[in-house]
Design goal:
The protein is of the alpha+beta class. It is built from 5 helices and 9 strands, in the order αββββαββαααβββ. The protein has 2 domains: about 160 residues, Electron Transport, Fmn-binding Protein, Chain A (Pnp Oxidase, Chain A); about 40 residues, no CATH class. Helix 4 packs across helix 5.
């Protein structure tokens, strides 16, 4: 297998300035709906990139759980690696790779912690076993074996077998407030269509086409 020979043409669609919404949230909502309608696997999956105290980037995939005019929301253990990195540097990059549509969206912004009310509301909407898993997993920390993890899960499940599972003190959410968003549509001969929205001081958005 020669890696340099693995390639394909991108011919599904094009992207022009006249068809773009005036703000990136509205444009993202259009594309997200199309990704859902196309029945893509995990259309809300996004790569979250953060940076540690020595400048080492790290990435992981999480699910987008809320979206409004403020930004993109996800939830996580606040003692996890990503949360520790966000506490030191709240600059974040998100990436939505919608390969089957030959599209991607890249979001640059700042992470802000959500209120306990917002976090609790979402946590109580999760399946009970997902709530229990949040209690059972010391996210990002070493564990000796999967059996140890499953034993902890069973213990927590038994503890909260009756009634609601309470919100862990170490569980929260972040809203990524964007200041720059790029929309990428694959094009023939690698002449892709790329448009970037950049937030201006007055709150409006400047839209520019980028070279592929």
């Amino acid at each position: 297998m020669k890696l340099e020979d693995i390639r394909r043409e991108y011919l599904k669609d094009g992207l022009c300035r006249e068809l773009l919404a005036d703000d990136p949230i509205s444009q993202f909502e259009i594309w997200l709906k199309q990704a859902v309608d196309a029945q893509l696997a995990d259309p809300t999956a996004m790569v979250v990139a953060t940076v540690d105290e020595v400048g080492q980037p790290s990435q992981r995939i999480v699910l987008l759980k809320q979206l409004d005019e403020k930004g993109f929301v996800f939830f996580t253990n606040t003692e996890s690696r990503k949360a520790q990195e966000l506490a030191q540097n709240n600059q974040v990059c998100l990436h939505f790779p919608w390969h089957n549509l030959e599209r991607q969206v890249i979001v640059y912004g700042k992470a802000k912690l959500l209120s306990k009310i917002d976090v609790t509301k979402y946590f109580l909407s999760r399946p009970k076993e997902s709530q229990i898993a949040a209690w059972a997993s010391a996210q990002s920390r070493p564990v000796s074996s999967r059996s140890v993890l499953m034993e902890k899960f069973a213990q927590v499940k038994n503890k909260f077998s009756q009634g609601e599972v309470p919100l862990p003190s170490f569980w929260g959410g972040y809203c990524i407030e964007p200041h720059k968003v790029e929309f990428w549509q694959g094009g023939a001969s690698r002449l892709h269509d790329r448009f970037i929205y950049q937030k201006q001081d007055d709150g409006s958005w400047k839209i520019e086409r980028l070279n592929p």
